[in-house]
Design a protein that fits this description.
The structure holds two protein chains of two kinds.
Chain A (H helix, E strand, L loop, with lengths): L5 H6 L14 H11 L5 H10 L2 H4 L4 H4 L1 H4 L7 E3 L6 E6 L2 E9 L1 H6 L1 H18 L3 E11 L5 H21 L3 E8 L8 E11 L14 E6 L10 H8 L16 H16 L5 E4 L4 H12 L3 E5 L12 H6 L5 E6 L4 H10 L4 E8 L4 E5 L2 E6 L1 H5 L13 H8 L10 H13 L7 H4 L10 E3 L6 E4 L7 E7 L2 H6 L1 H18 L3 E10 L6 H21 L3 E7 L3 E2 L2 E2 L3 E10 L16 E5 L10 H5 L12 H14 L5 E4 L4 H13 L3 E3 L4 H6 L6 E5 L4 H11 L3 E7 L3 E4 L2 E4 H16 L1
Parallel strand pairs in A: 4-5, 9-12, 17-18, 24-27
Antiparallel strand pairs in A: 1-2, 2-3, 3-6, 4-6, 7-10, 7-11, 8-10, 9-11, 12-13, 14-15, 15-16, 16-21, 17-21, 19-20, 22-25, 22-26, 23-25, 24-26, 27-28
Helix pairs in contact in A: 8-9, 8-11, 9-11, 11-14, 17-27, 20-21, 20-23, 23-26
Chain B lengths: L3 E6 L6 H10 L3 E6 L10 E4 L19 H10 L5 E4 L1 H8 L6 E3 L7 E9 L15 E8 L3 E3 L2 H9 L3 E5 L11 E5 L5 E4 L18 H12 L2
Parallel strand pairs in B: 1-2, 1-3, 3-4, 4-11
Antiparallel strand pairs in B: 5-8, 6-7, 6-9, 9-10, 10-11
The chains are: A alpha+beta, B alpha/beta.
Chain lengths: ~750, ~220
């Protein structure tokens, strides 16, 4: 194949180029020509096409996402904000935490194991890149109906992939979600969250400055995996004898990533890098253009120096390859020897592929021929921005005007049957079949993990400082009202953090939606972003970063709008955390917060084929008071568990089953009280000697509290309904093994 | 003076820092040992930690066996030097022929992480001497290839010589022969255990503190020497 150089591009301005096949619109192609003053070389075209893709450029979401900056709560805790690989938050004692969620939805549908595995790999490298040791992962997952044949293909593969990769990295998996809904058939959502810890002075940024400093590529060798659109370029000119069909889903090697983590941490400790960037989506195109763009601007790369697994790769393919487990660092020449020695110790391949230059352009040569000559910012940051049409879908107002009815149990037998049915339903059933495939113990700092309200990790063994993380979404409420849905998801995530005894500190998000070219989906998205930005501001929390995943739809059917919200909290003494399970008999049970009996969007309604008509309206002022109530009352809570999916029924059952200690409660309006998912409620257990304190806290924070019963025995008794712990346990735990083996 | 216990890090070791924490909590001094060196740094006992050495893409532990540090450990072990292999460390000990048998894929083919009840069967080894005979303990189990297999003759020998040091109780997690969770060599200085005692040393982060006794047992034995 003839090398398409800058000289050739200048001499042959009219060569036809496959820009449309690479996903670029004709006006985008024209814009590249204007930027460069000539047609792009095939390598430049490849770089622009991936960097200007929706995934990398956020071209449809940018105009909305800027609200996260404009409305942002000014928090002193925010050390690094949106724009870097991941946000960084100060948690005190000179510790900084970085955390982020990303999606790996589409690859996980095509190849569940590798798609999910490399999703973990990618987010872990983002966290590592900030200078942090990764300390935990979480996985919010969404699938089609639990008994659908494709779910049986996708779910076990995704779970095995998350376990296979995460377990091998030595990262405890401390939580997540598993939700089933028919709209996720063909569009499973695999979101992966990673948390990392570092000292303030160890924060690293993705920047290349200092003329003469070296660009080092290290980690796995570059292969042909993950090359999507670029194979269009290749197939155009490659002869038939060459391997052209390559998988577009990357293949992970967790062992390579594990040694890369240890290697990087040793390099960071010795202070050997000026800037660092991982190679994820768009591979070297992304790493080189972003590093150069964030620095002084100039960089020279000798592309033939990139170590290859497949020597037949063309320069375009090398630039686009999404081979996993690779990092790119900027290293001063006097430190390169030390850098290389550490890489050698860990058997990590490291190669100097270029240097930072005094110019303002990114030059890439291949065997001495100039094939890329671009202003790096135009590749990395100045991609197209679309203000796509927005239209409120008709269904919203139609549903709002509609009424719905679901059967409600009345007598004791009905109540018992309803509870057993609810807790056996896939969305509420025990998820141990999944979570027991993940290592929650490694690193020895896991204080709480699933099914607790939040995952809680000890940061310092001497001072007992720790962090809590929770992820939440209620896509049905978002479907009914995306603005309220986003607010409620953030409120729930904060409540989960506070329920465990930690103080909410910062927010990340992963916004999963259908096609942005559908004005109805775009309306859902815009409303979601507006809701999240408003809620974060009102709750006084900075948004530290996030991820957008569009095109989660099959034909014209989009997934339910699914904004997954992650909240990070800090707890000064992890020994004082509040677990969810009832720990002893003879405690008093209280519901904190009032319910309104509405079943709209609830699991009970969903079980009867109804989505409802209206989302609850978030009362963030109350949620804030509730968080403070929970934090203040923490010393008197023997257990605490959020009321959310499945309502009080699910909360009671989960609280009882954790330590197999029963409870007896009396409820008015029993069916609505059990199944309504009215937000802003928590079930707590206290000693009766703490009655005065809880009453006075309720007064102080103006939160209604209701004593509903006491703990003890071997049954869950609700009014006249008596269900033994064995019956509950059987119903709760049998569903997943029956479905998935 | 506190006793020096080495913890080996192979590329891909995961529970090395946890094993070191357990050694320190038991009152010893944890000394990091690196796979690529044959220097035991004057330690008096060694722990081979859990993880996926070299990725375990071949048989688990099959490559770790050839690490320079293992030459020194195999030699020392034959002279009575205490060695505890946990999970991947157990697999490495089997591959190194310090212990008989092999660990194969769990019978249900899934990685399994759970709090597992064990019965301590032999309290005469260096690593189990602090337990009461027949004592039941709960410590985490977490692995994909934990099914202990050996031929009938070996099984008979292990049972008749009392070399089964711990057995799974109440629940069969992986299809191990005779529910074997751990075994020792003839002399009792080398012990392999599939579950993770280093993750049951504090009630805050583990299901119990039962695991600590493995480490205090060895340190007590060292005092006696």
């Amino acid at each position: 194949m003839a090398l398409d150089t800058v000289t050739i591009a200048t001499q042959n301005p009219d060569t036809t180029q496959p820009f449309a096949e690479l996903g670029l619109k004709s006006d985008e192609y024209a814009r590249i020509k204007t930027i460069l003053g000539r047609r792009p070389t095939s390598s430049e075209l490849a770089m622009y096409s991936v960097m200007w893709s929706e995934h990398c450029s956020y071209k449809s979401s940018k105009v909305h996402l800027k609200q996260f900056g404009e409305k942002a709560f000014k928090s002193d805790a925010l050390l690094v904000g949106i724009g870097e690989n991941a946000g960084v938050v100060d948690i005190g004692q000179n510790y900084a935490i970085t955390f982020k969620i990303e999606s790996h939805n589409h690859p996980s549908f095509i190849e569940p194991y590798q798609g999910a595995a490399t999703g973990i790999g990618g987010i872990v490298r983002d966290i590592l890149t900030m200078g942090a040791r990764p300390i935990a992962v979480m996985d919010p997952l969404r699938f089609g109906l639990a008994d659908a044949p494709d779910t049986r293909r996708v779910l076990p593969g995704i779970v095995a992939g998350i376990g296979g990769y995460g377990n091998c990295l030595g990262l405890p998996n401390i939580g997540g979600e598993i939700v089933f809904d028919e709209t996720y058939a063909g569009n499973p959502l695999v979101n992966a969250l990673c948390v990392g810890v570092m000292k303030h002075e160890d924060i690293k940024l993705a920047t290349a400055h200092g003329t003469g400093n070296l660009v080092v590529l290290f980690g796995a060798k570059t292969g042909g995996d993950g090359i999507g659109g670029v194979s269009v370029l290749a197939s155009e000119t490659f002869n038939a004898a060459k391997p052209t069909k390559r998988p577009s889903v990357q293949v992970g090697d967790p062992f390579a990533e594990k040694v890369l983590i240890e290697c990087c941490l040793e390099i960071f400790k010795a202070d050997l890098v000026i800037g660092i960037q991982d190679l994820g989506g768009a591979g070297l195109s992304c790493a080189t253009s972003e590093l150069a763009s964030a620095g002084s601007g100039g960089m020279q790369i000798n592309l033939e120096k990139v170590p290859l697994r497949d020597p037949s790769l063309s320069p375009e393919e090398i630039l686009m390859s999404e081979s996993q487990e690779r990092m790119c660092a900027i290293v001063a020449p006097e430190k390169i020897k030390h850098f290389m020695a550490i890489c050698k110790k860990w058997d990590v391949t490291a190669t100097v592929i270029g240097e930072v230059t005094s110019g303002e352009r990114l030059h890439i040569t291949f065997n001495g021929e100039l094939i890329v000559d671009v202003p790096p910012r135009t590749v990395a940051h100045d991609g197209p921005v679309y203000n796509r049409p927005i239209k409120k879908p008709d269904y919203v107002d139609q549903l709002a005007k509609s009424t719905f009815e679901v059967p409600l149990p009345t007598d004791a037998d009905d109540v018992k049957a309803a509870i057993l049915k609810l807790i056996a339903s896939p969305n509420i059933a025990d998820k141990s079949w999944v979570t027991s495939q993940f290592d929650k113990y490694v690193q020895g700092n896991t204080v709480l993990a699933q099914p607790e309200d939040s995952g809680l990790i000890r940061i310092d063994e001497e001072t007992h400082l720790g962090v809590a993380v929770s992820t939440d979404a209620n896509a049905r409420w978002s479907y009914l009202d995306p603005y309220e849905g986003a607010k409620l998801a953030l409120a729930e995530s904060c409540r989960n953090i506070a329920t465990s005894g930690a103080k909410p500190l910062a927010v990340t998000n992963c916004l999963n939606f259908g096609s942005p070219e559908d004005p109805g989906v775009m309306w859902q998205f815009a409303e979601t972003v507006r809701g999240l930005a408003d809620a974060a501001l009102e709750l006084g929390l900075p948004i530290t970063g996030g991820n957008v995943s569009f095109y989660n739809q099959t034909g014209s059917v989009a997934i339910l709008p699914t904004p997954v919200i992650g909240v990070l909290g800090v707890i000064q003494d992890v020994r004082k955390r509040t677990p969810m399970g009832i720990p002893a008999a003879d405690l008093d049970l209280y519901v904190i917060g009032k319910y309104n009996g509405n079943l709209s969007g609830s699991e009970w309604a969903y079980l009867h084929g109804e989505i409802g008509n209206a989302s609850p309206v978030a009362d963030l002022n109350m949620e804030k008071r509730l968080v403070n109530f929970l934090l203040d009352g923490q010393p008197i809570f023997e257990s605490a568990h959020d009321v959310s999916n499945g309502g009080l029924a699910a909360t009671l059952v989960e609280s009882v089953l954790k330590n197999k200690i029963g409870a007896r409660v009396d409820l008015n309006d029993v069916a609505n009280a059990l199944f309504s998912e009215t937000p802003g409620r928590v079930l707590v257990a206290i000693k009766s000697s703490a009655t005065n304190e809880i009453v006075s806290l309720a007064g102080k924070y103006q939160i209604p509290i209701y004593k509903i019963g006491t703990t003890g025995g071997t049954d869950l008794e609700i009014n006249q309904a008596v269900i033994s712990i064995e019956e509950l346990s059987k119903a709760h735990t049998e569903t997943f093994p029956k479905l998935f083996g | 003076m506190s006793f020096r216990v080495g913890v080996v890090t192979f590329p891909g070791s995961l529970d090395d820092r946890d094993a070191a924490r357990a050694v320190e909590m038991a009152g010893g001094t944890a000394v990091p040992l690196f796979h690529a060196s044959d220097d035991l740094k004057e330690v008096q006992a060694v722990v081979l930690p859990g993880g996926f050495s070299y990725g375990d893409y071949l048989r688990c532990g099959a490559i770790a066996r050839f690490a320079p540090i293992m030459n020194s450990i195999v030699t020392a072990a034959s002279h009575g030097f205490p060695v505890l292999g946990i999970c991947n460390g157990f697999q490495v000990l089997c591959e190194s022929h310090l212990l008989p048998g092999a660990l194969t894929r769990n019978s249900n083919l899934h990685f399994l992480c759970r709090d597992q009840k064990l019965k301590i069967e032999n309290t005469n080894t260096v690593w189990t001497s602090g337990f009461k005979p027949g004592q039941e303990i709960v410590i985490p189990l977490k692995n994909g290839e934990g099914s202990f297999q050996c031929d009938d003759e070996t099984l008979k020998m292990l049972e008749s010589e009392g070399r089964v040091i711990a057995r799974y109780v109440d629940f069969d997690p992986n299809g191990s022969r005779n529910l074997i969770a751990g075994i020792s060599n003839e002399r009792g200085n080398v012990v392999g255990l599939m579950p993770h005692p280093e993750h049951a040393i504090e009630s805050l982060t583990g299901p119990s503190t039962d695991g600590l006794t493995f480490f205090t047992s060895a340190l007590q034995q060292l005092v006696g020497r």
